[in-house]
Amino acid sequence: MEMKDIVIQFGALAQESRLEIFQLLMTNGETGLFAGEISKNLGITANTLSFHLKALQQADLIKSERHGRYISYSLNIEGYKSLLKFMTEDCCKGNPTLCATDVECC
Amino acid sequence: MEMKDIVIQFGALAQESRLEIFQLLMTNGETGLFAGEISKNLGITANTLSFHLKALQQADLIKSERHGRYISYSLNIEGYKSLLKFMTEDCCKGNPTLCATDVECC
DNA sequence: CTTTCATTTCCATAATCGCTGAAGTATCGA
DNA sequence: TCGATACTTCAGCGATTATGGAAATGAAAG
Questions:
Q1: How far is the CA of A1 from the C1' of C15 (A)?
Q2: Fold category of B3-89 in CATH
Q3: Mind listing the pLDDT tens digit for each residue in A3-59?
């Protein structure tokens, strides 16, 4: 993972609406939610939501799938894991004592 | 941790210079580095660096200590861990299968 | 006390971001 | 084919962010 990609990932999560979207999708598994459901759920207008979804998708944090005229969005767990990997692998380079506890994912 | 604090933390890391600063401090342990050393190391002018250090500090990701006329900056590991905690604890709410592997920190 | 050095704060500017309304695209149902 | 529905893209705007130069602060050294 390049530094720039990591910056894009952090940037995608550095906004309240987008973090809410991401959290919501966290709890909605493989099937995810349709854009309209997210919109209703979080009270974000369609166009603004579309803008944020694009940012999250470009950051490799979510993915989309068309079902007729609906588009479902769901977590891209691999992208998220690569961010966590970056955050934890570089954590202790040169200084293991600083970061002594394990962080568990699930 | 509040949503807004998390957004601030992600925002602090969502910038190339700041991510570089943070990575550099990762590898410099408890003692950290003086502002001037960081500046020289990364080629960032003093005033701009100061601006970025402030952002990282306000996000609880680094801390500072004055030594005479030098100021050392070092990792605030607790703040970083709380971010990792947020990212991993909420990860599987409602969907453990999505996020099955452990992420190790050190 | 004055100078010097390390760093921060202030100010101005250019770039980016987030939001909105309006228009565009894609799909479905009649 | 026509209209309705779901969603995206575009254009424009106000707000925030990143940066650099200049001035200010804080601490040491002479």
A1: 26
A2: Arc Repressor Mutant, subunit A (1.10.10)
A3: 999 999 999 999 999 999 999 999 898 899 999 999 999 999 999 999 999 999 999
Hey, which residues 47-86 in chain B have their CB within 8 Å of chain A?
Answer: 75, 77, 80-81, 84-85
Return the CATH number of A3-90, one of 1.20.950.20, 3.90.950.10, 1.10.10.10, 1.10.760.10. 1.10.10.10
List CB contacts (< 8 A) between A22 and chain B: none
Q: Torsion over CA of A64, A76, A7 and B41, rounded to 10 degrees?
A: -160
And the tokens for B42?
């990364």
Domain-wise residue ranges, chain A:
3-90
Residue with tokens 């588009």: A71
